[in-house]
Structure formats: structure tokens, C-alpha cells
Amino acid sequence: MAPLKEHVATKTQQRSASDLWGPAPYAVIVVDRTGTVRDLNPAAASLLGGAAPGAALSDAAPSWLARAHEETTNPADRPAGDTPATAPSPPVFRGRIGARSFEAHPAPAPDGGGCVVWWLVDDTDRRLVEEELATERERTAFLAEASNVLLASLNTDRCMHVTAQLASQYLAEAALVIVPAAGRKLPMTYAVEGGAAVRRTVTADTALVPGLSEALQGFPPVPSRWIDPASLPDWLIPEGFTGTVGSASVTPLPGHGVPAGVLVLLRGTSSTEFSENEEVFARLFAARAGAALSAARLYAEQSDITRTLMRDLLPPRLDRVNGVEFAGGYQPAAARDRVGGDFFDVHPGSTPDEASLAVLGDVCGKGLDAAVLTGKIRNTLQALTPMAGDHEGMLRLLNGALLNSHHTRFATLVLASVRREENRVRLRLTSAGHPAPLVIRNDGRVEEIDTRGTLVGALPHIEARTVETELLPGETCLLYTDGVTEARGGPLGDELFGEERLKRAVAECAGMPGTAVVERVQMLASQWLHDGRHDDMALVAITAPPTTHLSAVNGHTRGRYTQ
């Protein structure tokens, strides 16, 4: 009777234990030390394709689960040094059953007979979410890096190179950046597998590539599955791309109001085709690349416009005109500014016997606003050069033009009509609220020309006084703006350079060429400032050329002169 009771008790314990995992949501399989299946719930039977009690685990389950059972039931099989104290607690084994991924968690059987209960937990969805999260993190890091690199430069070529390199490194095996162009010539930059970018221009018909013409006009991209790789033209396959194109993607590069170009991605036949998710990610990258490329293009256009306008705003380079030496120097108030409120011009006479007109002026204010009015004054005076013989008439017309403009600034200026008469130079000088010109005589005397007048652009009526003088060979007339005399510096940094100091400085320049006089005054004024703040400074030197050469001219320089 005793053996029968023990058998009945064992069956009861097994049945009650089985009842515990029978309704469990996970597959459960009980395996003894010999690797024989002793029990399993319906979920395990369905998962393992009809496994039943009494079957060998190696026959009823995947090999990874059989190996996991051996490692769990035979500690001696563990690698050296992997003791129960150091083994994972609890141990978890992973593998695939069919198309799904599972975690296998072992636990001792309730009957204590040495069997192991394996709980099989489907973690496919969790692992997919983790993989997608890791992928999104990588993509976010890539987009952040791409944005930083693309926005680090406002150079169009560099933006195209960086776009092609990044795209060929992270998105495809090869990438091409094509920008809109007139006619059939397409500027493009390509890179293969993150290598050096190459720029070239091809003559091609964009209609041969599905979606390319539309993308260059800013239309949405066509799905890559609509593009037949075999039909792609040869000019679209970059040098260095080996093998056959297996998949292609055409993505527009959106810009600021106008399309910035197109990004073409290519993959070989050994790679997977572009998925819908990858095409969406390519569009995210293209949006950043297009914004950077568009900003670089706008900056280049603005730079071209600025350079074009700047050529007319910058003071001209002066030289000999109708037998008279002219020299000029200009220093804006701020180092970052190339133009300002000071200006000078020389308008040559139509014939050597006709007087040339030299103008030097100072517009109230500094920077670009003052430079705009400076340009208007210069253009107005150029239009008035036919009446250069009437300084007062020119000033009245200029004053009326400034009063009728929207500008509220005024200006001071000095006009000088200059004509060569044999070896002398005759001057007619008229000041409109401007510092008086200085004449440097050969004996070192400095004469202040007594011409004066009211400034222009402030009062309805102006008055001006014209004075005539002449220069002997080697003598110079210096026109300057108050930025020179009002330069504040010196030992304590608060003293003006002043007119007297200027006169003493130019007195030391007797007999020097006009260029040397201008450079000398600029050097002394800069030394006086000690890098301090100052107003715009402009100078014009009008010199009667010496008539006798001391040394021969080498064909490129004027040589040295004496009287």
C-alpha cells in the first residue's frame, strides 16, 4: 500500500503544479536532468509544434534552448571562472523560435525533483522597439552633426561637398548634389562611400531621370520604387561607384522660397533597397542640407551685390591727371567698415588744357548710413562736372538736392579746380564748411588758404568764397577732413591732434611727393591715436610735379625728381 500512496501523492503534486502554469500567458515547459520533457502547457505545445511529455528537448525545441538547459542543469559545463556566485542571477537565455525572438527564464520545479521549468517570454516587440529607438538615436545624432557641419560655412561649394560626403557615408553608397542651372548644364558634386567630394558640370537632359526635373523645381519626391536603376543615364553614375545600381532615390533640397537643388542617392545590388522609413529620413537630412545650401547661396548673392556697390562707394585710387600729381588716403572710423562718411574724387578735364575737379568731403555720421549719402553726393557732383568752373553754382545745386532728399544729414566739402600751366599748377579752391586747405611751399612754409563757406544740406541758402593760388614745381596742396585734426590721443589719450600739430607735421614734408605727404600724415595720426576710437579720415594731396629728373626711370617707376 505504501508505494501506491506515494505514486498517488506524486501524481497529485504534478497535477496541481501543472495547474499553476497551465493558464499562464507564456509558454511553459518542464524538463528533467536528462533533457526529457516532463510536462508543458498548451501555449508551449502550440509554440513548439506538437511537443509532448516524454520527448527529448533537443528534438522538441530549438538547439539554443537545449544548450541552455544543459548549462543550467550541469554547472560543470560552465566556462572556467563562471561560478554560481558570479553567474547571472537569474540566468536569462535568448534565441529565436520561428520568426519571433524569445527569452528563456529557468526556475526549479515545485516538486523539487531536479526538473527545470522553462518560461518562454516573447520579447520580439520589445526588441524591435529597442532597435528602433537605437536607430532613432543614431539618426538624431547624425542630423545634429550634419546641421553643425553644414552651418559651419556659408560657402556654397563647401555645403555641396559636405552634403555629398555625409549622404554617401550614412545614407547610401554614393550621393550626388545637383543644383539648378540655366540651360542643360548641371553643376553637381558627388561622393562615394564618404570619400572626397568631386565637383563637375555635365550637359544632360534631366527628363531622363524620373522625378529629377520636378525635384529641381521643388516638387515632392517620387518613391524610389518608381525609379528603374537600369534606366539611369551614365552621367548620373559617379566615378568610383563599382558594381550595378540596385536602388536609387531622388530627394529635393528645399531652400528659402526657391529650390536649392536635388540629392540623388545610389545603392548597389548587394545592398537593400530604400525603405519608406529611409526615404523619410533622407528628406529630413535634405531639409537641413537645403537650408544650409540656400543660406550659402543667398550669402554669396548678397556678397556679390555688396562688392558691386562697394566699388562705387570706395574712394578711388589717385594718380597723375593731365600733368598734375594726385594722391589720396582714406581710413574708416571702424576697422570692420570699408566705407564711411569721408570721400574724395578727381574728375579729369576733357582735355589737358581744361581744369580737373578734385573734391574732398565729410558727411555727418559714420558707417553705412553715411556712406549711402556719400554715394549720392559723389554721383551728384559727377553729374555737375560740366559746370566745374562755377563752384558756387555747383554747391547751390548740390545743397538743393540734399534738402529735397529723405536724408537728414549734412556735409562739408572743398572743391579744387586744378590746371597745369607750363611747370606750375593753378588752383581754384572753394570750401563749404570744411577745414581750410594747406599749401606746403618748397621752403617749408605752410599756408592756410583763406576760403570758407557754409555747409551743404542744412540751410536753404549757402555762401561760399573761392580763392585762387598756384603751386611751383614740388609744392603740394593738402586737403583733409576733420577726422585728422580731431583724432584724440596723445600721452593721456584725450588730447586732439589739432591743426597746429598738423601744420608742423606737413612743414617737414616740403619737397616730398604727394604720396609721401599723405602717408606721413596718416602715420602720425595713427601713432597719436594709439589704437583709440576716431572719426573717418581722408586726405588728398595735389602736387606740381618737379621738372628735372635726378635718375632715369626704369620703365615702371617715376624715378626721383628735383626742381
Automatic annotation (TrEMBL):
<dbReference type="InterPro" id="IPR036457">
    <property type="entry name" value="PPM-type-like_dom_sf"/>
</dbReference>
<feature type="region of interest" description="Disordered">
    <location>
        <begin position="68"/>
        <end position="92"/>
    </location>
</feature>
<dbReference type="InterPro" id="IPR001932">
    <property type="entry name" value="PPM-type_phosphatase-like_dom"/>
</dbReference>
<feature type="domain" description="PPM-type phosphatase">
    <location>
        <begin position="321"/>
        <end position="544"/>
    </location>
</feature>
<dbReference type="InterPro" id="IPR029016">
    <property type="entry name" value="GAF-like_dom_sf"/>
</dbReference>
<dbReference type="Pfam" id="PF07228">
    <property type="entry name" value="SpoIIE"/>
</dbReference>
<dbReference type="InterPro" id="IPR052016">
    <property type="entry name" value="Bact_Sigma-Reg"/>
</dbReference>
<dbReference type="InterPro" id="IPR003018">
    <property type="entry name" value="GAF"/>
</dbReference>
<keyword id="KW-0378">Hydrolase</keyword>
<protein>
    <submittedName>
        <fullName>Serine/threonine-protein phosphatase</fullName>
    </submittedName>
</protein>
<feature type="domain" description="GAF">
    <location>
        <begin position="138"/>
        <end position="303"/>
    </location>
</feature>
